[in-house]
Amino acid sequence: MKLFKENFLAFGLMLVTLAFGFAVLYFAATAGGGAEESSGGGEASAGTGDEAAGAENAPTTLSATLSEFAITGNLSAEPGEIVIDVQNDGAIAHNLSVLGEDKTSDLNGGEAEVLSLGNLAAGTYTVVCDIPGHRESGMETELIVGEGLAAGDDSGSEPDYAAIDAAFTASILEFPAETEGKGNQVLEPEILADGTKYFELTTEITKWETEPGRVVDAWTYNGTVPGPAIKIQVGDKIRVKVINKLPMGTDIHWHGIRTPNSEDGVAPITQALIESGTEYEYNFVAEKEAIGMFHAHHAGQIQVPNGLLGTFQIGEIPIPRGQTISGVTIPEDIEIAQEIPMVLNDAGEIGYSLNGKGFPGTEPYVVQAGDWVVANYYNEGLQIHPMHLHQFAQLIIAKDGIPLDQPYWADTVNVAPGERYTVLINPDTEGTWVWHCHILSHVEREDGVFGMLTAMVVQAS
Ligand SMILES: [Cu+2]
Q: Is the distance from CB of 385 to CB of 433 less than 8 angstroms?
């Protein structure tokens, strides 16, 4: 057996060597032939003619995309053999049916299929998803076959720009819109006998209206997104009881806050998981100033974007009074008229949002011209968000709660996941100035403006 194997291997190697030798010979011969061809014009053009003949027989390939509830793609071609690459980019099953011809199978979200239609004569074919109700909801288009039509020619299906104009204008005019519930409300502690500040946080899945009429199953602390704001002072001793009413375990990490290791909130490393239906207490002393966050660490990718997030502030960020930065002197005597928390999120049940709300449900910030305002950005999402305020530069005075020795001005502040930026703003021009993430797909979709956009409304002082 062993001998056979060795012989077999040797025979195999010999074949490979021979094959390689022939390949080299063949390559040399064809390369030489090629050189001759290129010197003789007639030969070269004959080659091109062969290729053209091949292309004539190839089917025309079109592509179509299915979603809720539309069929998109430029479906036009010359008469002949036609195939359609069909991709379902939706969340539910769809198919593509060319009525009177053929159809794909039902494709789940993310699936694709190539639909070969054979030879189609000139004409207009109706294309639908034939799953009951889907055609009526908008999944209908046409396949136009005609002489002189380039494959995928979209001359007959120009977007309806007037309708897009109207949709965008209408969506913007809905702002500001009322929604149920408001997050970031300061949670007052109970003061225990020894002076400890005691807070309770109940984790639960509750209904949350992110924008008018869009109510989701949010994962919340005390029923809001963001959860209640915790504001304490350096030196405070605090106790936080977590009452877990979620269907799964959780924990709370104090992001950007110094704590003893046992209080860091990383199950199962620093503590046991807070099982569903149980309670747990965190105890620590606030060591130093912080612009922090609290959020689940366990299964964070599920729990945090779904709403288990909140702001946690210790003390105040110092204002660089009297300091001159890029030629602008911050007056000594300014008072901060308003502190604006802006918690960014982009995933889970909540989606693209500022403080748990998507446009037009986002909150406008009303200030008086000349006010000095501090805003804190907190990115609890999974993506970066360059936050742009029209007209007014933002003075970045702290990064992750750490005061900067050299603050700097910017009109767009890029906030990555986990980061916090503290900015000082001096809105001095009356008007409604929009304030938004500048990744445009985070603020606009096909039917208009949504998501991470709000406004600063500057009134006459
Ligand atoms: Cu963004």
A: no
Alpha carbons 343 and 341: distance in angstroms, whole number:
6
Cα 441 to middle of ligand 1, angstroms: 8
Sign of CA dihedral 53, 54, 59, 60: negative
Just give the CATH number of 190-459: 2.60.40.420
Residue 19 DSSP SS3: helix
The DSSP H or E segment spanning 294 is strand 290-295
Distance 448 CA to ligand 1 centre (A): 16
Interval between CA 418 and ligand 1 midpoint (Å): 14
Under 8 Å between Cβ of 307 and 219: yes
CA distances (Å), origin 430, targets 197, 341, 460, 461: 41, 22, 6, 9
C-alpha 15 – ligand 1 centre gap (Å): 60
Distance of alpha carbon 57 from alpha carbon 432, whole angstroms: 61
CA 348 / ligand 1 centre spacing (Å): 14
Which residues lie near ion ligand 1 (Cβ < 5 Å)?
A: 385, 437, 439, 442
Strand partners, 229: 186
Residue 394 alpha carbon to ligand 1 centre in Å: 18
**Domain covering 60-153 in this structure, CATH number:** 2.60.40.420
Q: Where in the chain is the domain with CATH 2.60.40.420?
A: 60-153, 190-459
How many Cα atoms occupy the beta-carbon half-sphere of 58 within 13 Å?
10
Distance CA 183, CA 265 (A): 22
What pLDDT is recorded for position 38?
38
Task: Give the separation between CA 304 and CA 417, rounded to whole angstroms.
Answer: 11
**What is the C-alpha separation between 442 and 449, in angstroms, rounded?**
9
Q: Nearest 5 degrees, angle CA 392-CA 397-CA 403?
A: 170
Q: Which residue has the tokens 């997050």?
A: 183
Chain segment 40-91, per-residue pLDDT in tens: 333 333 333 344 444 456 788 899 999 888 898 889 888 889 999 999 998 8
Question: Strand pairing partners for 239?
Answer: 198, 283
CA distances from 440 to 61, 162, 253, 446 (A): 32, 20, 31, 12
| Global model pTM greater than 0.85 | no
**DSSP H or E segment with residue 57:** helix 41-57
